[in-house]
Amino acid sequence: MKLYKIGELARITNVSPRTIDYYTKMGLIEPEKRSDTNYRLYSDETLTRLKRIENMKREKYTLEEIKASLKLWTKVSHDEIVTDKLTNIQLHLQQLQKEVQEISPILDKLKPSQLKNFNKMLTPHTAACIEALLLLLGKSPFS
């Protein structure tokens, strides 16, 4: 397993050493171990986690929200690849939720026959996803 000092990790991830230090103090990332000269050493899993943190920041999550999300997914699995996939799914679902909220007023204005045609054009999986998202938002797609 390759281990990285803060400077190496910063160079690879394009995140400043100061930010990495801050993330470590916040508990967003943890060093794998310390070197004989007391340098913090980070693993490849930290690379994955840092990329996920930066991705969530681009999606306008606060660091506290990111920390809570990472903690939640770590309870599901300690494997960073699995938690990375779960986080990506979460981000996609939230993006879909925003899009459903945008299209919901348009769907509300459709006549029943138009809504029926709309649903026929969608694949069953897509229709099920849209219906589930609408239900999550407290709206029934067929009312």
Helix content: 55-70%
Average pLDDT for all residues: 83
Question: In DSSP terms, counting alpha (H) and pi (I) runs of 4 or more, how many helices?
Answer: 7
Shape: elongated
Class inferred from helices and paired strands:
mainly alpha
Major sheet: order of its strands? 1-2
| Order of helical and strand elements | HHEEHHHHH
Q: Approximately what portion of the residues adopt beta-strand conformation?
A: under 5%
What is the CA-based Rg, rounded? 21 Å
How would you characterize the largest beta sheet? 2 strands, antiparallel
Distance between the termini: 56 Å
Residue stretches low in confidence (pLDDT < 50, at least 5 long) are: none
Number of strands: 2
Task: Describe the secondary structure blueprint for this structure.
Blueprint: H1 6-13, H2 17-26, E1 33-34, E2 40-41, H3 44-58, H4 63-76, H5 80-108, H6 112-121, H7 124-136
Antiparallel strand pairs: 1-2
Helix pairs in contact: 3-5, 4-5
Task: Provide a descriptive summary of the structure in words.
The protein is an all-alpha fold and 143 residues long. Helices cover 69% and strands 3% of the residues. The chain has helices at 6-13, 17-26, 44-58, 63-76, 80-108, 112-121, 124-136; strands at residues 33-34, 40-41. Strands 1-2 form a two-stranded antiparallel sheet. A hairpin with a 5-residue loop joins strand 1 (33-34) and strand 2 (40-41). Helix 4 crosses helix 5 (80-108). The longest helix is centred in the middle third of the chain and has 29 residues, at 80-108. The radius of gyration is 21 Å and the shape is elongated. The termini are far apart.
